[in-house]
What does this fold into?
Amino acid sequence: MTYTIDRYPCEESPRLGAMTLHPVAESVPRARRWFRKFITPYDPALSVDDCVLLVSELVTNAVLHGRSDNGPWVVRVEWFREGTTLRVEVHNPGLPEDVRLRCPDSDDAHGRGLLLVDAIADSWHSGPSRFGGTVVSFEMAGAWPL
It folds into this structure.
C-alpha cells in the first residue's frame, strides 16, 4: 500500500483528515489530489489551489529531506479547522534544525518551496513532530466564516 486516508475524524476533534504516504515521488501528486478531494466539501473561503500548492511543496520537501536510520518511514499530512483558520501539518522523520528558508540563485533548480509557503500562507512553523522527527505546518486565516 502506498498511502492511507483518515477521512472521518471524531466529532470533537478539530482535525478534518489525514493521509500517510510513502516517501516516493508519486506521493506528491497523490497528496495534492487527496487534499483537494477532502477539503473541497468543507467549502473553504480561500484559494484551494494555493493550499494545494503549499501541500505539494511541503510533501516534496518531506520526501526529499526526510530520513530515518530505523528502517522504512512515512510522510504524514494532517489538516485541521481551528475557528476560521485552516492548519496543515506535514510530518517526517527528518531533523527539525534542517528546516530553513533558502536564498537560491536564479539558476538553482531547487530551494524555493519554503519561500512559496512564506509568501502565500498567513504563517508557517517548523519544529519537532509529536510522531518523532519534524513537522512543518502552514496556516491560512479566514478559511471559513465565523
Q: What stands out?
A: The mean pLDDT is 86. The first strand starts at residue 3 and ends at 6.
